[in-house]
Amino acid sequence: MPSYAVTNPMTGEVLQKYPRITDSELGDALDRAGRAHDVLSRQTSLADRIAIIRRVAQLYRERADELGRILSREMGKPLRSAIGEANFSGEIYDYFADHAEEALADRPIALSGGTGSAFIRRNSIGVLLGVMPWNYPYYQVTRFAGPNLLIGNPILLKPSVQCPESALAMVEIFQAAGLPEGAFQSVFVGHEQVSTVVADPRVQGVSVTGSERAGSVIAEQAGRHLKKVVLELGGSDPFIVLSTDDLDAVVTHAVGARAGNTGQACNGAKRFIVIDELYDAFVEKFSAEFAALPAGDPTDVNNKLGPLSSPAAADGLEEQVKRAVDQGATVVTGGTRVGNMFAPTVLTGVEPGNDAYGEEFFGPVAQIFRVSSEEEAVRLANDTEFGLGSYLFTTDPEQADRVADRIEAGMVFVNGTDLEAAELPFGGVKKSGFGRELGPLAFDEFVNNKLVRIAR
After folding, report:
1. pLDDT digits (tens, 9 = 90+) for 129-143
2. What's the order of all strands across the beta sheet hosting 391-393?
3. Domains of the chain, earliest start first
């Protein structure tokens, strides 16, 4: 397994290396987390946990510029987006703090007979392992850590090997906010050590954000030990255009939905499904606007696209595009690469049987499909192993409701993009995983809904 290191994806310069921890050090971390469970859940009141999370939110906002620059160094996120991610993480922590008391309150049950009372008490379950990716280092952890620390579940974070600096910055924030010792730790471990953590009896749940392969391997390990798992995996989100009064505005939404995080977002729009009468104009306008996005040094706030996160990521995307073309796709624009910079690319003519038809493209590559009807659009949208998010543009409210109901995805956004918010649940179906983060459902994944029945 690669070592943990910060490697500037724009220049290739290795800025800092971090050693993997030893098995003995991992044992110490598990001991601290185990002790922290009692301190956090029993000795720290909910009011105090809420105050700590509010302080965490404040620190994210105060340090947003510093935190954003870390992401630009580690994985090439354009600086404006990187700072935005830090600020959004602060908003999410505030949301969880605002709603924790209501979410974790006892829930009375109306009895059908007998005397006395009954209620559900929501208790912590224990230490949780978070296996988190490189593409949204703060945001992904925030979705997982926020509700669970409020519940009283300590967190062990296994960050991406290329994002150790942001992981340590998060540890520092939690320490500065007053979180009990051991309640949030980052462990620089290898694959075999992850298996050790999953098997440890103090660890009662695992959340994985990453590839289908990583999710299935860790979920299998967790299943052998009867541990709860939440998976947020890949996506190949459809963006359906059935009618519009303003095609230019729809195109701008579409470009933004594909270009976010330089196309390296699991819930980014990737397959654009356009009704026949709008298709030619959409392809022309989308291709021109996508190709014109300012790209380059991620620390330049004017750039909307940065480099891909690593040479391996750029190699993989380049190979996917070449294979798609070899199998019959047409490149409308782009398809070229300089170092880790990948030109915005549009593919048309991707047919069933082309590998690209069923693959996720993790970078600035868009596929555009022509359809003749609503029925064909829905069928194409659902013809994927993934089911994370989806987008629909139409001027017909009844059609919007009808199509949204039929799309096989965890999320449907109608006539808008960039609508994600702290209060809106996030998650998918099919091979995009299961479980929900954000919103009120975030408190439901790793909690003991304990029945208390009092006879008299």
Report:
1. 999 999 999 999 999
2. 330-333, 345-348, 365-371, 269-275, 237-241, 391-393, 413-414
3. 4-233+432-454 (3.40.605.10), 237-421 (3.40.309.10)
